[in-house]
């Protein structure tokens, strides 16, 4: 047995402040529960615990819980590498497309302020975002994916001579834009592990990070550094992707390994993080990327390779936080 004020106090602790103050009238207890961001089983478990507790209050014969419409939670998936030029932007664009094909409402942010490439990769170079209520409205890339890149805001070819805080503000404008009903923002992070990256992960708290590396030792050492940046900021690792793995000769089909083989998979093992898959070094990937036509949007082995990685990422995102 417990009285109503006692129960109200327990309710706050039990629900982490998600429940309104309970009211009792004619034997019926009513309260509202904010279920935003909870997995269905967490939501149901919480409701059952509230009901059970509510029925111990004297005079209560029934507990009615109004679950508030799920609050939209925009998750951020950071795609990062310790080293430039390893294919982080290529993977971000194709992962966004492949996740979209799996049915997720995906948006794409090019956080590579000094070397933006997503407008080109996603065929949206000629678009300019507008601002509504002081928020940027994303432009549309391949497959109708909403996206924003610094390339949409600055003149092509013009160098940005910005200091850290200005860059931080620009990144926030891209991330806090008008994303509508987008569920997941794939963020192509700037290369490296400096202050900007750290501020970015601390301020915008990605739900998870995907690290890209080539199989080369040097790239893998840098990838390890990127992993530790996210670990410091408490961002969970989704896993490691090996890009430019094995080169298939377009003439004879022979596979060679210009950057070695299996390095990323064993590094992932050393770091106790999942290995998400490998993308081959293929002329077609570069050609299509340059033409603003990501291979993940089509069919064939490269689309399949990106789709397999996207499926692992989607499964990871489904896990309760
Ligand atoms: N799997 C691949 N096969 C062939 N070419 C690739 C592959 N991945 C990336 N490339 C090419 O390598 C170059 C660098 O790729 P990308 O721009 O994605 O790397 P990045 O890590 O984002 O670089 P930066 O640090 O400059 O942002 C591009 O020309 C791209 O088309």
From TrEMBL:
Keywords: ATP-binding, Hydrolase, Iron, Iron-sulfur, Metal-binding, Nucleotide-binding. GO terms for molecular function: ATP binding. The keyword Metal-binding applies. Signal peptide: none annotated. Gene3D superfamilies: P-loop containing nucleotide triphosphate hydrolases. It comes from the Bacteria. InterPro entries: Mrp/NBP35_ATP-bd (IPR019591), NUBPL-like (IPR044304), P-loop_NTPase (IPR027417), YlxH/NBP35 (IPR033756). ATP binds at residues 82-89. Binds and transfers iron-sulfur (Fe-S) clusters to target apoproteins. Can hydrolyze ATP. Homodimer. Belongs to the Mrp/NBP35 ATP-binding proteins family. This is Iron-sulfur cluster carrier protein.
